[in-house]
Amino acid sequence: MKGKNVYRLFLVLVLSLFSFMAIEAQSPVRTTYIKGVVIDSLSREPLSYVAVFLKGSDKGLQTDENGRFEIQTKVNFINLQFSTLGYSSKEIFVNKGEANDIVVELVPTGVALKEVVVKPGKEHYSRKNNPAVAFVEKLMDRKDIYNPKNHDYYSYDKYEKMTFALNDFSEEQKEKWLFKKFQFIFDYLDTSEVSGKPILNVSVKEKLSKEFFRKSPASEKEYVTGIKRAGIDEIFDEESVQRFVDDVFREVDIFSNNVNILQNRFVSPLSRIGTRFYKYYLTDTVVVDGVRCVELSFSPFNNRSFGFLGRLYVVENDTSMFIKKVRLNVPKAINLNYVDNIFIEQNFEKASDGSRLKVKDDMVVEFSIIPSTQGLYARRNTTYRDFSFEQPASDSIFDMEGKVIESADAKFMPEQYWADNRMVPIREKENSISKLLAQLREVPVFYWTEKVISVLVSGYIPTGEQDSSKFDFGPMNTTISGNTVEGARFRVGGMTTANLNKHWFAKGYLAYGTKDEKLKYDAELEYSFTEKKYHAKEYPIHSLRIRHQYDVYQLGQQYMFTNMDNVFMAWKRQTNDKMTYRRLSELEYKKETVSGLSVTLGLKHQVQEATRWVPFYDGYGNWFDNYQQASVNLTLRYAPGEKFYDARFTRIPINLDAPVFVLSHTYSPKGLFNSRNTVNRTELSVQKRFWFSAFGYTDIILKAGKVWSQVSYPDLLLPNANLSYTIQPESYALMNAMEFVNDQYLSWDITYFANGALFNRIPLIKYMKLREVVSFKGLYGSLSDKNNPALNNNLLRFPANALCREMDKMPYMEMSVGLDNIFTILRVDYVWRLTYRDTPGVDKNGVRIALHFSF
C-alpha cells in the first residue's frame, strides 16, 4: 500500500471504531419507498429531468430521461415537491414507512419566459436561445466584479464548528443485544438540524479566528484565537488530523471554476465550462430573507460526473446579478465513494459598495463504508461577521510566517471566552462528548477496539496510555519480511516519546535473517531544538540527529513511501540479491519552516561490505573487502502549501496538489576516511498534480541528475527498480535492479487518473463506478567514458550477475493502463515494457496491484 493512502482511510477507521455496532445498529426506523413517473397533464407524455425534493429535508434527485424516479429513504420529510421549467410546481403526500407507486401530473404554466415558450413533452435540452443559459452567462460575466478581494484589504471574523457523528442512530436500538452494555449512549443522542435524523456526536471541533487579505503584495493570513476539540479522533495526531479534515472539507467557492471538496474537483455551476457541463433552468421566483429572487436550477448532463444538483437564488431585477443564496447537492449516481449525500448551503449579504459578503456556509456530508450499515455524519458550519475593507492598524500580521497563525493560548481559552464569542450557540449534546468518551472507555470492548485502531494508524504499540507512554514498539508492519540474501527476516524496534523527554528522542531496531544468520541493527539519537508533543517527526522539524546502522543495502531499490522491511514488499517477481552489507554513520542537521522550505545538511560515512552477489574488484584484478565513502550532503526542499500527516516513521502526503522542488548535492573528497573516489553528484526533482476539473488529474514527477566526477558504480546513478508486485511511485515495474547504470539522467513519471471520465458513459460498466488509470514512465541516461569500468581499470567492475548495460539513444520506457476503484479500494494495472525488450532475463509485461483509498 502506498503510504499516502493510509490517511485517506481516516474516515474508514473512525467508523471502524464503532464496527462492533455496525451489523446490529441499523436503524429500525421504517424505510419509505417511492417510485413513480412524472407526466404532462395534457399530453400524458413523460417529463424528463424534473427536480424532485423531499420537502423538509436536504434530499433531492431528478427524473430520468423517461420521467421515472425511485427513492428509498429513512429521512423525515413533509411532502414530495416537483418542479421544472414551464410547469407549475406541485407537492404531493406519500405514506411514510410504506411502498408508494405514484403518477405525478404537472400542469403546463402556459407562461412565456423571455419570449420563449416551453412546450410539454420529453425534454430536448438546447443551449441555443435558452433564457436560462443567457441568464447564467450574465452571472458568469459579473461574478468577479463584486469579489470582496478586489479591495486592497479585506478582513472578517470567522467561527467554524466541525461535527462528526454516527448517523441515523435511533433510540429504539436500545433493545438490541449489542447495546446492553451501552445504554448510557442514548442519553447523548442529538438531532441533526439539517436532516432531522437522530445522531450520536463523536467529535466536535470549534475554531474562532480572524481572516486578513492584502491585495498587493498578495498575502492571506488566518489568525486563530481559539481552538476547542473533543472526540474519538484524539487518539490520532491532532494537528495531522486537522490538516486532513481541512483538506477534505475545504471551503466552497462557487465563483471559481472548480469546487475542491473530498479531495476531488467538482465543476462549479459558474465555471467557464458550466454551460457545456450543466443544464440550467429558470424554475421559480421565491423570497429569500425578505428579498425576492429568481431561482436558477441546474444539473449535470451526466449525473455520474463530478458536478452538482442545485439552485442559485439571484436577486430579481438587480443589474449586479447578486446571488443571495446557494444550495448544492450531488447526484445520487455520482462516481463518488462512501458518500451518500452532500448538502451545501451558503448565504450572502451585499456590502454598501455592492461587494458580496458570505455570512453563512453550511456543509453536511453523510458517509457509509458499507451500504445499509451504520454511517457517519459530518457537518462544517461556518459563520462570518465584522467585515472590513480598511487597512489593519498594523501590517505585522502579513509578516508572520505561515498562512495560519495560532495564538499561544488558543487551545487554553476558558469556557467563558467561548460563551462570549461563539457566533452560533453550541448544543448541549455537542458539548458533552468528553463525558461520553469517558464512559465508553470504561467498557472493555470499546477500550480495546480503540487501542487496536490506534496501532493500525500509528504502526506502533505504546507501553502505556497516550499521555504516559515513554516508549513505543514498532513499526509493526516491518516485524516479518524476507529476501534472497537473508531468508526470513525478523525485526523488532521502537522509539522513545516526548513523555520521556520533549527534546531528546531515541529509536532503533534489531533484525535477524534466518539464512545469513547475521544480526543487524540501527540506533539513532535526535535532539529537537523545539519541544515536541509526542514524537520527533512532528512538523516543523528543527533538529540535530546522529545515527549508526549495520544492515543489508539494496542497490537500485530505494522506495519513496515505504521501506524494504514492509511485509507487503516481500513477494518479489525475481531473485532479489543485489545487496551489500552496509555500515552507515551519519550526522544530520535539519531545519523546516512553515513556508514550506527545508534545509538538510549531513555528514555521512558508509562502508559497504562485499558479498558473493556484489563483489568489489577492479580492472587490475584487485579484490576488496569493502567500499568506503565519506561525504557531505546538502538538500534544499521547497513545497509551498504542502499538507501531510506526521507519521512517526515518515511524512505521508495528504494530497499532492502542492508543487515540490528538491535540489541536492553530494561532495566527497578522495582519501577522506578512506574514501575511494572524489564524488560530486547533483540531483533535481519537481513534482506536481494537475487537475482537469471533473475529468480527473495527472501526477507528474520529473527528475534529473549528474555525476560530475569519476566514481565507481556504488556512487553512480542507479534507477529504482521495483521487484515487487505492488505499484510504487518513482520506480520502474519491469526494470531489473542495476540493469542500467548512468552518470547523468532525465526521468519522468506521469500518471493520469480519469475519475471515470470514460466508464461513466458506458452502459452497465458505469454502475460499477470503475475509474481509468494510465501511466507512462521513462528514463533517459548515459554513462560517460570516464565512469565506464570497461574503459578504466581503476574503477570497480560491475557485478557479473547484475547484467548491467549502458543505455543507447533510446530511453527506457514502460506504460500501464489500469482499473482503479475496484470495490472502492483496489487498483490493478497491466504494465508493458516498451523498450529494451530483448534484454535477457527481463519481464516484458505484468500485472501490478495497489490499495488505493479515495473518495
TrEMBL record:
UniProt keyword annotations, A-Z: Carboxypeptidase, Hydrolase, Protease
**Annotated Gene Ontology MF terms?**
carboxypeptidase activity
Please give the Pfam families that the UniProt record associates with this protein. CarbopepD_reg_2 (PF13715), DUF5686 (PF18939)
Q: Which Gene3D superfamilies match?
A: Carboxypeptidase-like, regulatory domain
Hydrolase as UniProt keyword:
yes
Its recorded name reads: Carboxypeptidase-like regulatory domain-containing protein
